[in-house]
Specification:
The chain has two helices and no strands. The protein is an all-alpha fold.
């Protein structure tokens, strides 16, 4: 039995781009572009602003500049 009774999470939090990250970096970039399209269509809602903040923090952590997307 595991000592701390918590499930193991493999590759849950990615600190950098690399082969272990899998498709997380690409999915974050796609998610950011979809949110930008929704912002143009729906306008600035509180939910969308929070979602863009979270995704942009992920991209910054991965070392991707937002200008290139």
């Amino acid at each position: 039995m595991p000592a701390n009774k918590r499930p193991r999470r493999k590759n849950y939090a990615v600190n950098k781009k690399g082969p272990k990250a899998g498709t997380k970096v690409a999915k974050a970039m796609v998610h950011y572009s979809k949110l930008q399209e929704r912002l143009k269509f729906e306008g600035e809602t509180k939910w969308l602003i929070n979602a863009v903040t979270i995704v942009s923090a992920k991209l910054k952590k991965y070392g991707i500049k937002l200008n290139k997307i």
